[in-house]
Amino acid sequence: MENVLSLVPVLIKMAIVVGVLLLLPLPLTWLERKIAAHIQQRPGPMRVGWHGLLQPLADAIKLLTKEDHIPAEADRMLFSIAPVVALVPPFLVFVAIPIGDPIQMFGTEIALSISDLNVGLLFILAVSGIGVFGTILAGWASNSKYAVLGSLRSIAQMISYEIPMGFSVIGVVMLAGSMQLSQIVSSQQGLWNVVVQPIGFFVFFVSGLAEAQRIPFDLPEAEGDLGAGYHTEYSGIRFSLFMLAEYLVVVVLAFLNVLLFFGGWLGGPAFLPATFWLLLKVGFFIWVFMWLRFTFPRYRYDQLMTIGWKLLLPLSLLNILVSGYVML
Question: Which of 30, 121, 136, 309 has the fewest Cβ atoms within 10 Å of its own Cβ atom?
Answer without folding.
Answer: 309
